[in-house]
Write a structure and sequence with these properties.
The complex is a heterodimer. By secondary structure, chain A is an all-alpha fold. Chain A starts with a helix and ends in a 27-residue tail after the last helix. Chain A is 72% helix and 0% strand. Chain A is built from eleven helices and no strands. The radius of gyration of chain B is 21 Å and the shape is globular. In chain B, α5 crosses α6 (138-150). By secondary structure, chain B is α/β, with parallel strands linked by helices. Chain B has two domains: 2-239, 3-Layer(aba) Sandwich (Rossmann fold), CATH 3.40.50.300; 243-280, no CATH class. Helices cover 32% and strands 27% of the residues of chain B. Chain B contains ten helices and 14 strands. The relative contact order of chain B is 0.14. Chain B starts with a strand and ends with a strand. Classes of the chains: A mainly alpha, B alpha/beta.
Chain lengths: 246, 281
């Protein structure tokens, strides 16, 4: 029998939607775990990233540190922390936060660095305080790249969060580990497919947010420059969706 | 009145951008600092609003040492216009113009109304108010930049090569516009450029700078053109060549003016009326 058919059958089996360890529960656990990890990693990485982007100092250190963090094998770190603080959810939280920090940090400072220096210099020269430059210029203009960093962190965390089940009875990874132990490949593959679907869903959500946070004046860069006395109709702010459609 | 007193600026890397510079800039007049790159002209300009702090000497505005003023507050009281406009790309034209008044606590509605009026002042259609800077041409962006600089009705307007990045036709238009504005508003304008023609066109007082902010000559355009202080000035302003070195030639009973390349510059029409140039093109 086809193993994918079996996996689909497992996913659709009503028996898997009831009781402890039901699919909806596991999905929520998995999502909650991913979300909390991103929040903690952001709380650490974003202030540092903003500080680096705003001052232009410490970039070398940040690149070296995030390179180092990226190089740490997550499973190894997970095992190490679990040996240290014991079995449970603490170890996967630590390991995955470490995994999530580099992309968020990079997104935060790269977003600031991508802003036209002239605009920031002018903002300062007309009398914006440093805090106002940060909140009114740098954060709005740097937000799309920060969301990009969060997006790639979310993708890594949601996929790697399966490892949480290695040291705790938690998340979609449980299906992979238990399926492996009992040689229930339908359960294993079914669990994997659920993780993939979750990752794709998160991608879609973040891609949408990333588009939405692009400031309008920046998003309209490619609109034609206004020419005085132009006979052409002016494509202004109306949505582009209706254009060119038959 | 802005006074530089023995001002020096050494950057952390050791470059001495300005060395013992002293100058008085009269109120309600346009002073143009002109020089090639490395002459410290932009550094001098940015010292006036404390974007750069001198390492020695002092700068006074109307008798007050600006080192004693809070930089952010000082900057909000001085207009600043830069090359490439420096507008905030995520704010509409009207919001860019209203930036500084809002920072100073002007109510939003009034700031917006004032900003729209300011667009009229700089010759921009109010229809552009709700556009973003990226939707404007380079010349329009510079006008918005000037409008932002004037929005708080400052006594002093600093202009750092504001017309350097637009094409020659638009530049000429913007220069005329600035002359018109200046006759109406009478600000103390400090204008930095590397273009001698622009300096002579706009400046009441022109300061020609050599490297390290050394003053080669100060004077009205006519003074400088008539009596270049030295060979550097003569060669910098091109007094010995091109369209500044004119001579008279007789042609069919009339005097015509010819430049050093032999190109016709105009016709001599006799005594000049007051306020009128002595030849017509």
């Amino acid at each position: 029998m086809n193993i994918f058919g079996d996996a689909l059958g497992w996913i659709l089996d009503p028996a898997n939607y009831a009781g402890p360890g039901a699919i909806p529960v596991r999905v929520l656990e998995h999502l909650g775990f991913t979300f909390l990890t991103l929040v903690v990693a952001s709380a650490i990485a974003i202030p540092f990233g903003f500080a680096i982007g705003h001052t232009g100092r410490g970039r070398g250190l940040a690149v070296a540190t995030s390179g180092g963090l990226r190089a740490i094998p997550t499973l190894g770190l997970l095992t190490l922390v679990a040996l240290w603080i014991g079995i449970g959810l603490g170890a996967p939280y630590v390991a995955l936060t470490v995994l999530a920090i580099p992309p968020i940090l990079a997104g935060a400072y790269a977003g600031f660095e991508a802003i036209d220096r002239g605009a920031i210099d002018a903002a300062r020269a007309v009398g914006m305080s440093e805090a106002q430059i940060l909140t009114q210029v740098e954060i709005p203009l740097g937000l799309p790249l920060l969301i990009g960093g969060l997006r790639s962190a979310a993708l890594q965390v949601v996929a790697t969060a399966t490892l949480a089940a290695y040291v705790a009875d938690f998340g979609l990874g449980r299906y992979l580990f238990s399926g492996l132990k009992t040689r229930d490949y339908a359960e294993m593959l079914g669990g994997s497919i659920l993780v993939i679907l979750l990752a794709l869903a998160l991608e879609a959500v973040f891609a949408t947010i990333q588009r939405v946070v692009v400031p309008r004046g920046v998003a309209t860069t490619r609109l034609p420059v206004d020419r005085a006395r132009s006979a052409r109709p002016r494509p202004g702010m109306e949505p582009a969706i209706t254009k060119g459609n038959p | 009145m802005i006074e530089f007193r023995s001002v020096s600026k050494q950057f952390p890397d050791g470059t001495l951008a300005v060395d013992d510079f002293s100058l008085t800039l009269p109120s309600h007049r346009t002073t143009v600092l002109v020089g090639s790159s490395g002459s410290g002209k932009t550094t001098l300009l940015r010292m006036i609003n404390r974007m750069v702090d001198p390492t020695a000497g002092s700068i006074e505005i109307d008798g007050v040492d600006i080192a004693s003023l809070e930089p952010v507050k000082l900057r909000r009281s001085i207009g600043y216009v830069m090359q490439n406009s420096g507008l905030l790309p995520h704010r509409k034209v009207v919001d860019n113009v209203a930036t500084v008044p809002l920072l100073r606590g002007v109510p939003r509605k009034k700031a917006r109304a004032d900003a729209l009026a300011m667009l009229d002042t700089v010759g921009l259609d109010r229809g552009l108010a709700d556009r973003y800077p990226s939707q404007l041409s380079g010349g329009q962006q510079q006008r918005v930049g000037v409008a932002r600089g004037l929005a708080v009705n400052p006594n002093i307007l600093l202009m750092d090569e504001p017309f350097g990045a637009v094409d020659p036709i638009v530049r000429a238009e913007l220069q005329q516009e600035l002359i018109r504005l200046q006759t109406e508003l009478g600000k103390t304008v400090v204008f930095v450029t590397h273009d001698v023609d622009e300096a002579f066109l706009l400046g009441d007082q022109v300061v020609i700078l050599q490297e390290g902010g050394r003053i080669a000559q100060i004077g009205s355009p006519a003074d400088i053109l008539a009596h270049p202080a030295n060979d550097f000035v003569a060669s910098f302003i091109g007094a010995d060549r091109g369209k500044r070195a004119l001579h008279v030639e007789r042609h069919d009973g009339r005097d015509v003016l010819v430049d050093s390349d032999g190109r016709l510059a105009g016709v001599l029409v006799g005594d000049s009326a007051p306020g009128q140039v002595g030849f017509s093109r």
